[in-house]
Fold:
Amino acid sequence: MIPVFNAIFPIFAIVALGFALRKSGFIEAGFWSTVEDLCFYVFFPALLAQTMINADLSQIEAGAFTLTLLVTMAVIGASLLALWPLMRRFLGTQPGQFTTVYQTTTRWHGFIALAIVLSLYGPQGAALIALVFAVMVPVLQVSNIFVLAAFSPFERPGLASIAKTILRNPIIWGVGIGLVISLNQVPVWPPIMDMLDLLGRAALGASLLVLGAGLSLKAALNPSRELLIGVLGKLVFTPLVMMGVATAFGLRGLERDVLLICAAVPTAMNGYVLARKMGGDAPLYATISTVQTVVSFGSIPLLLWMMS
Structure:
């Protein structure tokens, strides 16, 4: 377990550093949103494009791998929707609270997953993570928007609006361009690859600092039953479902491990904005994401140790 902990410790140490920098006031609050935009629109698309261009996709069982992802997302989503009547009746959960539980259980923090996989498995694992991005980002974006719209008191977005949101996602463009170049074996001018490499190196450190700066320990001190469901659903139930589906489809070794890491990481913060705009419970989202991030510092090494 010690090697796994040693590999993951730097990642969470950078998250803690980001939190400390924000709390200290050493860096102005407005700076963090700028860095977050740089990560989302420049650094990560560059990193994922470079990863896909360099990936040897012939060694990946893409069919079983992709099917495992899709089935897992379907099972998690269906389970949460089935839980809604029970939460409403026995816990008094409001629609906005439920959509936040749904989002924080189904979404995943791809930046943390990528950092862990790169640390443990190198470029081969990174290629698998890039495929995960390609599959999960559009599917989760659509499903979460539909759930928020179904429970929202506001006007529901149309299909054209949802499609536009997905097509504007730079992560999709980064993975897509890299995948097309890789599959067609298009030669890329080496200085361009060097440029992508330099941008990609900035992605992980900057994104983890931003994640830490966005944590709210004050919000985490407001426990609720919805908070407990959100934490257990993401950090316990989701990895168990992923493990079961991966086993059913015969995935082993690196492919299974990468999928489990993706399942075990805390939720992504981008759902907070959707919760605020579409009638979700944004303060609850901040609370759940903070607690998930803190707890995952122990739960992810434990999961990886159990797998080994």
Remarks:
- The CA atoms of residues 6 and 45 lie 28 Å apart.
- The longest helix spans residues 110-151.
- The chain has one domain: 2-307.
- The two ends are 9 Å apart (CA to CA).
